[in-house]
Each structure stands twice: as C-alpha cells, then as structure tokens.
Please model this.
Amino acid sequence: MRIFVCVKQVPAGDSLLRVDGASGCVDDGDFSYEMNESDAYALEEALQLKEKHGGEVVAISAGPARAASTIREALAKGADRGVLIEDDNLAGADAFVTARALAAALRVEEFDLVLTGLQSDDAGFGQTGVVLAELLGLPHATLIVEVQAEDGKLRVKRELEAGWFQYIGMDPPALLTIQSGINKVRYATLLGIKKARNKPLTRHTPSELGIDLAPMQTVQRVYVPAKTKQTVMIEGSADEAAKQLIEKLKFEARVL
Amino acid sequence: MSILVFLEQRPDDIHPMSWEAMAAGQQLSKELSVPLNAVLAGGGNAANTAAAKRLDGVFVLEAISRGAYSADGYCAALRAAIEKLSPTLVLFPHTYQVRDFGPNLAASLDRPFVSDAVGVRAEGGQLVFARQVYQGKLHADVVPAGDPPYFASLQSGAFRADRLEPAARPAPIEQIPVEIDVAQIRTRPEDPFQESKGEVDLSSAEIIVSVGRGIKEEENIALARDLAEAIGGELAASRPICDNGWLPLERQIGSSGQTVSPKLYLALGISGAIQHVVGMKGSKTIVAINHDPTAPIFEIADYGIAGDLFEVVPALTKALGSSDD
Model:
C-alpha cells in the first residue's frame, strides 16, 4: 500500500500574533513553525497502516522552502520519502491553490491512499483534502476516526455530529481527511532523525508542474476581532450574587 | 442575481444551523433586493416548514431524499439545482455534512468555497466574507475570485435563527428532477450509529451549563449537574474535563468538540481558551463564574461573577429552586 500524507507547516500554537495595521497582514517575523496538528495524526495513521500492511509512506507539502523542515520531521517519524512543491507564494495560499499544487505533484505518482488532516490550525479552511479529491477524481470521506484496509478495500469510520458515527466503504485509490485524536502520535527518535537526513526529498516548482497560482479567494485584511460585549460584573456574597444573576437573566437578558 | 440557501435534511427535521444560513440569506436578499431560494432533499414536512419563511421559492431534490447521504449524490443533485437556478451566491450551514461535500461541489464547478464564515456583506459590488483565522484569534476579510456562483458556509451562531422572518404567505414548492446513476456513487455508506448511550445534541440545547478545569475534582462535577438540572439545561465541558474522562467526549464544547449557540451558556471554572471559545461564543447570553477576574472568559461574557464557584454554584442552584413560580 502506498500512502501519501499531505502535511502543512503552520505557525506554532503559541506564536505571538501581531497585525501590521498598515498592510492588514500578520507579522510573521517572530513565528516558529510546526506540523499542523491533524496532519500529524494523518501521518501517524499512515505509518500504522504501513506497519500493518507494508508499503510506502510519502509526506507531501506545498509551501515555501521552510516547509522542507516539516517534511523532514515526517521522515524522522518514519515516512520513506518526501515531496515538496516549493514556492514562496504557496505560503498563505488558499485551499484551492494548495490543492492544485498537491494534485499536480500527485498526478505523476502512483498511490492507494491520500491522507490529509481535517483542517489547518492557521487558515482553517478545512477543505484542502476535499478539493484535492475532486481534482484527482478520487472518492473521499472526511472526519475519519478509524481506517480499515482489508482485501483491497477500505472501510472507514466517519465522525458525524452529536456522538453519531458511520462506516463507509470505498475502493482505493481514495482520499481521507483525518480527525485529531484518531491515534496516539509518536515522537521522532534520535535514530529516526539521523536516518531522515538520507531519505529522498523531491522538490518541484509550480512552473515545472504547470500549476496556476492565481488565488481563488483573496484576503483583503486581517484584524483583531472587535470585542462586542460589555461584561456586567456582579458583586456581593455568593447568595446575593446568585440572586442578582437570576434576576438579570430573567428580566434583563430574558433567557430564563 | 439571486441567493440560494442549502437546508440540511436530517431523518426527522432540518439541521437547525440551516435556519441560521437562511437568516443570513434573508438579510442579504433584503440588502441587495434579490430573490432568495432554498434547496433541500425534502421528505416529511421539511419543505413546508421552509416555505413558511420569507423567501421566494423552495426547491426539493427528491433524488437525494431517498437513501443515505453520499458526497457524490449530493454534489450531482446540487449541481442540477445550481444549473436550474443560476444563483449568484450559495449559502450553507457549516455542518459536518457540508464540510464533506460543499468544497467538493464548488471545486467541481471550478469555484472557491469560503468555509466557516462568521459574516458576509456586500461592499462595492462584491461579496466580502469575514472568517476566523489562527483558531479565532484573528479575523480575515475574504473575497472570492472569479465569476459567480460563489459558495460559502456559515459558522454556527454567526447568524441568529430566531431573527428569521416568516412568510406573508407560503412560498411555492417545486421539485427538481435529478437522475442519479447508482454507479456514480463511489462510496458505500452504512447506517449511522451512536457510540454511547444517553446521547445529547448540544447544538439544539437552549441552556448549557459547562465546566472547566476550575471544577478541580471529578466528584465536584455533581455541583454543575445539580445546577444544570435546576436551570433545565444540558451539562457540557471544556476539553480537559473530557480528556480526564470526567464527562463523555460528546459533551465537549470547542474546536475539537461541538459548536453551540444556546440562549444561555454558563461557564463554570472555564478560563476561556480560544479552543473552547470558538465552540460557544455564538451563545446569546454568556455567564462566566471564575475565581480569576483576569480570565479571558470575562472578555466575552455578558455577566460575570469573579468568585469561588464552589460557593456561587450551589447558591445559584438553591436560588433557582426557591424562585420557581
């Protein structure tokens, strides 16, 4: 089984977000980067499937040169090789453009399964995988919390809302978007990090693959959302505060 | 120019977030003086319910009202509706189902899909959508490129279903015939099931009592449960409580759990980390009880009590019991 895992490099969760007022852009000067959380779960799922069924795991990313370090991280954890579609304009690209870039690189590969995370922690489009499936003509399923691969067929468990689930069958090649928490993500070992240095990483450029980088949605500006609420602080003893709060909920907010 | 709203059909009703999408549709159709239509799978009384709102037409896709949901089936049916109605804008609720097929549908028409928008406005002849980025810490104004139709899904709570305007007289209901070849469906869906018993759909709860780290010990959950019972609400929690196994995962609110927008949300001992806030900030009235007056939850709360929840919560339960009329 050959599995491609799409990994995105995103600003680390604790990155300080500063908006440059004049340009309406986020100042990324101080960012440190990490692998997007749900992509890390997708990678782990791919590695576990390979351990069970054999085959190859390939980590693929569309991003600027620095994204190579996230692919190296995937290689250190056990992916066999990496593919990077490299261009500065792919940093902050919309989901459709990212999917186009990934699709172009995947069209020259053979695979049984493509995994992506559910959504990215920065742009949060939550659709790169679904668009990629459409561009590659693959069946897909989203929010996957279990993957069974037996007898050349896939049976996956999809999370629905409010505690409901559903199994879905499909024939490979297919694309799955993986939900966080599906497995326990491994850490890279020292040996793994050492080995990763010698694993192959293929670099493509958009022009070489004929990728159209024209944005499909444009960010006009980024801003700190306005605080819309004036909080009424209620003082007094616990009993007084409780009584006052109930009064306000009944007669002011009228929600009781 | 016209607006089309997708209403998500469930076995017995329409997904409540669909009405929020329709509220957004009503608002825009009024601002722009353009017709508003709704499209749904149909079945039961759903089309009539939709036709009782202020809109110009309700379109039923019978082909997808039979059998299980599949992305392939929904995309084929929605493409037929879009071809017939030529909408400028197609609005969706940002549900799990829409996340599964919406971007796929848009991509199949070579169009972008603006996902999880929290606002939409017409400005200088173009549609501008507000989206959350960096897990809600920042917002971005986004403009879809190219020609219509434009596609967007709306975050739970971004628009209020209770502001929906009723119809003066019921809107006409029309079937859109679609032929879906079984061979087009590449997935084999099995029946949905519930993992655990005692399920609760928190997204339709009117009152939610939610606990966070501040509750300290598992046995203290009972304090919140008592309050939930006294106030007639559902019990929920932030992620750490569910990670500890003190409450089941299905009661988790936040980016990795459910998104809710009840009338009243009581946050007990919840600091207000963004991962939680994204799941509940659409609530109409938010009450925060926390010992730390600088906790970020007070930024979004309507009412706050900076005090010891172990005193305030039982006092609330007691006061509710005695004030029942």
Remarks:
- The helical segments of chain A are 37-53, 68-77, 95-106, 128-136, 190-196, 206-209, 238-252.
- Chain A touches chain B through 70 residues (CB under 8 Å).
- The two ends of chain A are 57 Å apart (CA to CA).
- The longest helix of chain A spans residues 37-53.
